[in-house]
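Course assignment 3, question 2. Fill in each field.
Student: A.L.
Task: Predict the tertiary structure for the chain below.
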Amino acid sequence: MDQESKLYQKFRDLYPKVKEEDILSCYSPYRVCPLGAHIDHQRGIVTGFALDLGINMVYKKNSDSTMSLLSLNFDDKKVFDSIEIESKQGDWCDYLRAATWSLSVKKEIVLKKGISGIIYGEVPIGGLSSSSAVILCILQALCKVNEISLSNDEMIEITQYAENKYVGVNSGTLDQSCIVLCEKDKLLVLDTLDGSYSNIGKPEKMEDYEIGIFYSGVSRTLGKGYNIRVDEVKSASYCLKAFANLPYETYEKSVMRDVPKKIFEDYKNKLPLKFAKRAEHYYQEMDNVKKGIEAWKKGDLTEFGFLMRESGYSSIHNWETGSKELIALYEELKEIPGVYGGRFSGAGFKGCCMALINPKYKDQIKDSITKSYLKLFPEYKNSFKVFFCGTSSGVGSFTK
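Answer field:
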């Protein structure tokens, strides 16, 4: 039985009197970013895939504004009012509240209809942007029952606003854009400066590939560590503008995309070391993306994978993220046959690594990484996981 069927049956058990035609469902995929890590909030150019794993929900429309959701991942039910949203509580329901609050605020409407249902994440681990996936899943449902139409741009904006202003994570638009805009078997290239994007198909001569997800066994949270690094790279941009007498507005609006690389080279020695490292990562990653796009167009997965490893290296040494577990996974993946390239997935604060792999080597890759990782960290034998998946299309715009 597939996951949606299991959810449907569970829903039927909880709500046996609901008519068949009133049972609704929605889905939102996870995402990975092979190149372009940590630069979307600086208006950089990023890449991404939506995965064929994600968040599933089966639900019904309520007669009032009540929201009632059961998470099978947490075996926990939350109930709240979509009109009177309470402040952040520090639990999994914050993302449900965030979606409801952000939609109400950005669309300047009162949500008269709530939903009741069951939600489940197929791979409940950090690093795949499950937060954006959950928010977008809830948005789909709320739009459906309240007869609201959203464009792609509106979905991305509302989801980012939810994470920035309610959840409190200073993310850019990478996660939301991948989940909305990606197309199956294509590489999304997104310019976060103006929102322009393209989906580049797989060349005929390109070898087969799948995406490996290697969960360290250690859950991660964003927040302070992530936000500090965003502030550090933003501070670098602000300082460099001042050194070079470039025009600037408020600190909040300053980003690295405003600063030519030559300005950085001329003045980097004046920056505090941490600020200089964050800026160095930005320029290196922009270069990795540029080279990676060309490698993808040529069908050269070897070169594309090499650039992914370079991205991972800069994340460790310039962006300075990565737990000992993630760094070990990154190093092990560099040595395993059949792995084109890999790096941290997500912010790099625990969670998982991702890799582009040759599917012919799946069994060997899983056996090798499991053996080597658990030799280093035997305490994670019950939580370390390996998943292999393909790409999918994003949710696209949804209408009433």
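Instructor remarks: The mean pLDDT is 93. The radius of gyration is 21 Å.
Grade: pending
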